[in-house]
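ok trying again, last paste got cut off:
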Amino acid sequence: MRYDGNGLASGILEARAEVEKAEAAVRLAKTDIWVPDVERSAGTATRIMSIPGPQFGTFGIHLGYELFDGGRKRAVKREHEAQLAQRRRTWRG
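nice, full thing came through this time. structure:
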């Protein structure tokens, strides 16, 4: 068994890293349920004719939220929670 500088087995460190990764996935899945999608756009345009004049630009922000997703986001969250539980069991041995 290999040990790191702190005397911990490398397998334990790898298992702990997997637990931390699974915890992050659960946090992200929980956030994804409530946070809307945000899109931004911007652009400029010039006149086609050779008449001098100002350029104009456009910009926009779009907020979107899916009211009904058939339970997809909650299912993803439950899947990540199950993976986290499995990784915790593996880590604790």
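cool. The helical segments are 10-34, 72-92. The chain has a mean pLDDT of 82.
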